Amino acid sequence: MSKLDEMIAELCPDGVPYKPLGELGYFYGGLSGKSKDDFTNGNAKLITYMNVYSNLAIDTEISDMVKIGENEKQNTVEYGDILFTGSSETPDECGISSVLTKETNEKLYLNSFCFGFRLIDKDLLLPDFSKYLFRSEEIRKQIKRTASGVTRFNVSKKKMEQVVIPLPPLPVQQEIVRILDNFTELTAELTAELTARRKQYEYYRDLLLTFGDEVEWKTLGEIGKLIRGSGLLKSDFVEEGFPCIHYGQIHTYYGTSATETISFVSVDKSKKLKKAKKGDVLIAGVSENVEDVCKPLAWLGGDICISGDMFAFRHNQNTKYITYLLQTTDFSRYKEKFAHGAKVTRLRQDKLLAYKIPVPPLEEQERIVAILDRFDALCNDLTSGIPAEIEARQKQYEYYRDKLLSFKEVTA
After folding, report:
1. Is 138 part of a structural domain of the chain?
2. Which ranges in 75-126 belong to alpha helices (H)?
3. Whether residues 23 and 117 fall in one domain
């Protein structure tokens, strides 16, 4: 019998109570009444949508700022609060949670597209336990059922009050946190190693793609054209049909290149949508941050439908060569200079087409691509190396998380 089994047998042999959130605390909204100007030269720290979406525990090393007036009434986030994303284009991505697990004296404000939950009795749940509990499969199932919509889905706070959670004794919570922290720590070590490998890769990529006057330089507009997508929504996806890519998937699912899509639309719908062709570079037009705006994907398959807020760049050069150039530090600096936006960031089409790139002979482009492909596979291939090990660890962690967070309910 494990230590956890012994604790459960001693402290809650008959099960644990389950309570709806509405009985345990209250929900509050993010920022309200803000304009774009309030997100420039801010004086207070802002917890962004992506901070909530991407982290089990809120990253408190915050650089995003918002302007808050001296007597302005806005909700602030407190230690132990559970934060949720409020909307998305699919129910599966609604209500993603993160928890403020560190105490801070600074006031923290929440993005307007998110909302928070605060326990009346903060001793009921350890913040580090909450960060795992609200991402568990069972709780996620309940949260997804609170979302409704057609083209965009929104979480109902009223329905969220009916989400039922277990309340095991604190020592049991502490032991579960210890076990799951060990899983996440092992994954974090692998991720750190992968990060170091990627930095090395980025250095050699930038070096290989550095040229002087020995080659011709042209703007993107001189070697090709942008085709803007339109009309495709995630809600249009079907299990089988005509292949398609939504701009958000470039950020979340695809690497440097692809030949097949993970999504499809009906054949009838596809006839009304803009399409990319083999050899196009697909470019995500918007992002939450400058770093990810204009993220490229070399498309090497057949015709596909593309969504709004993305482009197909049709050109006369090596597709992967162009894609690698749009991943370089030089292009990142260019984006930092010209990209704009408060809640989302964009780079105007004319600025994108004005970006100058070195254009060596196609044979040299192919040589560079062959070298970078090998580096890229070592760092990003999900079928081998560190990325594959991280994915395996993640699946193992999710299995044990859901198993550990399943409790027998105490009967009255």
Report:
1. yes
2. none
3. yes
**For 411, which DSSP code?**
P
Q: What is the CATH number of the domain that holds 96?
A: 3.90.220.20
Tokens representing residue 275 in the block: 């399409």
Question: Does 152 share its domain with 61?
Answer: yes
In a domain, 150, yes or no: yes
CA distances from 26 to 17, 29, 136, 148, 155 (A): 19, 10, 21, 21, 15
In a domain, 397, yes or no: no
| Tens of pLDDT, residues 225-236 | 999 998 898 889
DSSP bridge pairs for 380:
none
Q: What is the pLDDT of residue 382?
A: 57
What CA–CA distance (Å, rounded) separates 234 from 153?
A: 11
Instruction: Print the domain residue range for 241.
Output: 216-359
AA letter at 158 = K
Which residues of the chain have a pLDDT value below 50?
Answer: none
Together in a domain, 222 and 352:
yes
3-state helix vs strand vs coil in the chain, percent to 5: 40, 20, 40
Residue type, 26: Y
Overall number of domains in the chain: 2
Burial 364-382 (b: 16+ CB within 10 A, else e): ebeebbeebeebbebbbee
Q: Residue 390: what pLDDT?
A: 83
Instruction: Tell me how crowded residue 27 is: count the other CB atoms within 10 A of its CB.
Output: 17
CA distance 116 to 125: 15
| pLDDT, position 289 | 80
Residue 326 domain-assigned (yes or no): yes
